[in-house]
Design a protein that fits this description.
The protein is built from 8 helices and 14 strands. With 241 residues, it is of the alpha+beta class. The N and C termini lie far apart (46 Å). The chain binds zinc ion.
Length: 241
């Protein structure tokens, strides 16, 4: 019985979300998903090509921001954008996401490796025009990054399948056109180093999600867009309302 209580909580969460096909209810799925998450920590500009496409400098330490658990929705339930007339364009950012199964504070690489409980793809949805205005003023980004539905997550997969996260390849296709092609080998700050770095800035807790940053190719979501996200042999389909 060496399994930690956190590990068993995380396993139960993975099972409950993955087995929700029977008698599926969007409300229950999202409530279960959110109930597991304390905070979502996002990494900005973790791929040099994406930093450059938005005219940003390539950072020398991870640039962090957060989304609240209330922004999380399951990819199974589709994407609902804030009203474009009121809030402007919503951009997609496909990202490799990690869920922790143990707490991490000032962690070592080995502790970070042991704390990964689930892996999936997610969409860090961003009100880009609003974000640009906030950036110009030097204001925080919450209004552009934290709205309900702003963190879209796939089903959690077993981390054993992602040996050391060295060459994890993933893709986002929209309406059959390849938009983003990500490879963890191109991360400026790789997965374990990220977890260590974040855990030295503030504590991470079991259930917390890390969105590890987006590769280049971000763009605008339009009503009716059909999205396909692929991670190895796994794929998810979702659409924009
Ligand atoms: Zn992002």
């Amino acid at each position: 019985m060496s399994q930690s209580p956190h590990m068993s909580i995380a396993s139960a969460i993975v099972d409950s979300v993955n087995n929700s096909d029977n008698n599926h209810s969007a409300k229950n799925t999202n409530e279960q998903l959110r109930a597991t998450i304390g905070k979502v920590v996002c990494v900005g500009r973790n791929y040099a090509a994406h930093a450059r496409e938005l005219g940003n400098e390539v950072p020398t330490s991870p640039m962090l921001f957060m989304k609240p658990a209330s922004s999380v929705v399951s990819m199974r339930d589709g994407i609902v954008r804030p009203n474009p007339e009121q809030f402007g364009e919503t951009h997609y950012e496909a990202e490799l996401c990690i869920q922790l199964s143990a707490d991490l504070s000032a962690a070592t690489i080995e502790q970070a490796k042991q704390a990964i409980g689930g892996v999936t793809l997610g969409l860090d949805l961003t009100l880009r025009e609003l974000q640009s205005k906030l950036k110009e003023k030097g204001h925080p980004w919450e209004r552009a990054k934290c709205f309900d539905g702003a963190c879209v997550l796939g089903d959690w997969l077993d981390p054993q399948a992602f040996a050391d996260f060295k060459n994890v390849h993933y893709q986002l296709t929209i309406n059959d056109e390849l938009k983003q092609d990500g490879d963890s080998a191109l991360m400026l700050f790789p997965v374990y180093e990220l977890l260590v770095n974040i855990s030295h800035a503030f504590s991470l807790q079991a259930g917390d999600v890390i969105m590890t940053g987006t590769p280049s190719g971000v763009g605008v979501l339009q009503a009716g867009d059909a999205l396909m996200l692929k991670l190895g042999a796994h794929q998810w389909q979702t659409h924009v309302a």
